[in-house]
């Protein structure tokens, strides 16, 4: 009886040892395959050349677009770099991003002036005397203007900041001509 127990324990021990060796060799073989697969992926993964187009849309309606070629080593880095940009179009080797910029365009900051053309509040490329219109907004009842306001609009109000842009649009909005409603 004692001998039988020892024999059973010996058989069970051998089964556990050889079973464990078999499992560990399977795990090692699986890890070896994964390692080879990782090496193969690294060999296959070369930097990717991508044509990247960036579109910036400003509150004054202006779009700016520039395109450049970018070498991408890791896609994760690429996507994190353009965090906050919206993908507009993506094709093989090309991608277009757009970003809404809560400011006026650099172009308007450099060249934009508010003024009047035919009693309509207008943004000009340069002073209003040059009459190069960029954008028109709404008609103003010029009889409601203070003399200094009329002079400012005649000479041109330089648009240097978003705040000036918004202030002028709001300040003159209340001076739109009232329309009488007839029956």
UniProtKB/TrEMBL annotation:
It comes from the Bacteria. Residues 50-99 form the Bypass-of-forespore C N-terminal domain. This is Regulator. Residues 103-173 form the Bypass of forespore C C-terminal domain. It holds the Pfam family BOFC_N. The lineage of its organism: Bacteria, Bacillati, Bacillota, Bacilli, Bacillales.
């Amino acid at each position: 009886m004692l001998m039988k127990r020892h024999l059973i324990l010996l058989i069970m021990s051998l089964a556990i040892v050889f079973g464990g060796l078999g499992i560990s060799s399977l795990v090692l073989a699986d890890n070896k395959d994964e390692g080879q697969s990782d090496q193969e992926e690294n060999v296959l993964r070369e930097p990717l050349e991508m044509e990247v187009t960036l579109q910036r849309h400003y509150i004054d309606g202006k779009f700016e677009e520039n395109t450049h070629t970018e070498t991408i080593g890791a896609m994760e880095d690429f996507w994190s770099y353009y965090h906050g940009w919206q993908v507009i179009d993506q094709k093989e080797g090309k991608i277009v991003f757009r970003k809404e910029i809560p400011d006026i365009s650099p172009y308007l900051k450099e060249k934009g002036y508010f003024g009047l053309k035919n009693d309509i509040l207008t943004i000009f490329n340069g002073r209003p005397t040059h009459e190069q219109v960029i954008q028109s907004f709404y008609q103003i009842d010029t009889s409601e203007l203070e003399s200094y306001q009329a002079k400012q609009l005649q000479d041109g109000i330089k648009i240097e900041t978003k705040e000036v842009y918004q202030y002028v649009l709001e300040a003159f909005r209340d001076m739109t001509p009232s329309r009488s409603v007839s029956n």
